[in-house]
Write a structure and sequence with these properties.
By secondary structure, the protein is of the alpha/beta class. It has 18 helices and 23 strands. Helix 1 runs antiparallel to helix 13, helix 12 runs antiparallel to helix 13 and helix 13 crosses helix 15.
């Protein structure tokens, strides 16, 4: 089965993250990869929602986390057994499906135990002090295993403990051998030996099995019915029939009722610990309603995770969807600094110092001689315009501008008008339900030296709204810093028309002495000409923190 591949951006997805995921998944499909889908690792911000709705796109699949779950690793449907199944039927299941463990379920599909081939063999081979003599079975089970026909008596589903004797001797020797047993517990097997048949019927044994497909004289049948003796005819020879009779024992006799179970929604690592360290040979997996979902053994641990990731607009696991470290990463398409983990195999890793990941994706279309359709072109264009603030950010490159010219022609859009439409509709704080949501909508973590900081960014048209919300934003920023245990948390409020940023900061107050930009008031700095977080603010913060 081919793996499902998700193209996914970072945890706080912006327009570039989601647009590049949709665009790159479309490119992969056009190149023949049908099992590729776009995804997102968080909720789209208001700007991204506006663009998706404006261009007629549904949001990609939301991945809350990609930690492999028990459900991802199970082989379905499981091979199951019932408690009333005969040992012969169970062994046939083991053989037919080449499994080593069978979960046993009741009529409601609830697990009641399990049977392992190893333990079943051990019990069967060494059961009792006289293993060749005892047969624990019902008449129904015996008839099923022997493919027999009742000549006298009737079927019975009750479990009985019978003692098996083979009538292959003189009648005198046979009678002396069974003399010490209760006739009601005797199962006699013989062929067409009339003397043995008659002796068994006279002693009123529980069951007489006639082997080889041979018959019984009418007078003996009449006598058997009169004495309450059940007679069963089978086509098997005596040796085969004796072996099969042992297999008529119901499986319930061998079921291990103490078993380990796990929910299908639990992390796969929990299952791994039980199988490797808990001493469990097998673990039963159950659905939310308790019904059987499957069974896991140590071989399950070798099953590959059925999905993989392509990361776009980021390359650090700290920004990736939770669980990414447990999943195969096939490709990375990004435009940020390198902070990626090592990989066990070579992978495609494309990064370029451009203003938007969508620029790289658009370039890949053109390099392969493909033209994105109208909608994809418009979406990639929106991603570039968003990340470069309509080509005004310091991160903007000639390649970004080149791709914007190419995409706007395909999409039939003027990039200036389209960009102003995007920012006019969604800029500022109004689209966010709270100041904290506004900060978190585009909040990223950066490691500067040995210090982890968090910086959010909101684009605005004028600073009036910011000044009205300033104290609430500072309170929210202080809460975020405390919750995430950050030495410093900040918010960039960037006016896209004046190309100026007001930087609100919580923590490390000593930076005021070395910030290098005007401090308008405590915790607030004016950064003229600064629009890019990654290319302008973060490198500047590196210098500031290094100097402290």
């Amino acid at each position: 089965m081919e793996k499902q591949i998700y193209v996914v951006g970072h945890r706080n997805p912006d327009t570039d993250s989601i647009a590049s995921a949709i665009g790159y998944a479309d490119l992969k499909k056009r190149l023949g990869a049908e099992n590729v889908s776009p995804a997102m690792a968080g909720t789209p911000n208001p700007q991204t929602r506006f663009i998706l709705e404006r261009l007629g796109f549904d949001p990609p699949k939301y991945l809350a986390d990609v930690h492999p779950k028990v459900s991802h690793m199970l082989s379905r449907p499981p091979i199951t057994a019932r408690p009333d199944m005969t040992l012969k039927e169970a062994l046939e299941l083991f053989h037919r499906h080449t499994v080593r463990v069978l979960p046993v379920i009741d009529e409601r599909d609830l697990p009641v135990g399990m049977v392992s081939l190893l333990k079943l063999s051990e019990k069967y081979l060494v059961a009792g002090s006289d293993p060749t003599r005892n047969v624990n079975a019902s008449l129904d089970g015996l008839a099923a295993c022997l493919a027999g026909t009742f000549l006298a008596g009737r079927p019975d589903s009750r479990l009985e403990q019978l003692h098996l004797f083979i009538g292959a001797m003189l009648e005198e020797s046979f009678s002396s051998r069974i003399a010490g047993y209760d006739p009601c517990s005797l199962l006699i097997m013989t062929g067409d030996r009339r003397s043995i048949q008659e002796a068994a019927i006279e002693r009123r044994v529980r069951l007489l099995v006639i082997t080889g497909g041979l018959g019984v004289d009418d007078d003996l049948l009449a006598k058997a019915r009169e004495n309450g003796v059940t007679i069963l005819s089978t086509a098997f020879d005596t040796a085969t029939a004796a072996g099969l009779a042992k297999l008529a024992t119901p499986l319930s006799t061998f079921v291990e009722t103490k078993f380990s179970q796990i929910g299908i929604g639990e992390p796969f690592d929990h299952l791994r610990l039980r199988l490797l360290r808990g001493g469990e040979s097998a673990v039963i997996a159950v659905e939310e309603d308790g019904t059987l979902a499957g069974i896991a053994t140590k071989s399950t641990l070798l099953a590959p995770v059925p999905y993989a990731l392509i990361l776009v607009d980021h390359n650090e696991l700290g920004q990736a969807v939770p669980g990414a470290e447990s999943v195969e990463i096939l490709e990375v398409i990004d435009h940020h600094k390198l902070g990626n983990p090592g990989s066990s195999l070579p992978i495609t890793f494309l990064t370029a110092p451009v203003g938007s990941t969508c620029t790289i994706v658009a370039s890949l279309y053109r390099e392969r001689g493909l033209v994105p359709d109208h909608g994809i072109a418009a979406l990639l264009l929106a991603g570039i315009l968003s990340d470069t603030v309509i080509l005004r950010s310091a991160t903007t490159t000639g390649r970004d501008k080149e791709m914007v010219t190419w995409l706007e022609e395909i999409a039939g859009l003027d990039h200036g008008l389209f960009g102003r439409e995007i920012f006019s509709a969604c800029s500022g704080f109004a689209p966010h339900p709270s100041p904290e949501e506004a900060i978190r909508s585009d909040f990223k973590h950066f490691t500067i030296g040995s210090t982890l900081v968090g910086v959010g960014q909101v684009e605005v048209v004028g600073f009036d709204e910011f000044h009205a919300l300033k104290e609430d934003l500072r309170t929210a920023l202080k809460r975020i810093r405390t919750e995430e245990r950050l030495p410093l948390a900040g918010l960039m409020v960037t006016d896209i028309y004046t190309e100026t940023t007001l930087f609100l900061v919580e923590g490390m107050n000593q930076i005021a002495h070395v910030m290098g930009y005007p401090q308008l008031e405590p915790h607030l700095y004016e950064l003229k000409g600064v629009m890019s977080r990654k290319k302008q603010l973060i490198p500047h913060l590196l210098k500031v923190l290094t100097s402290l």
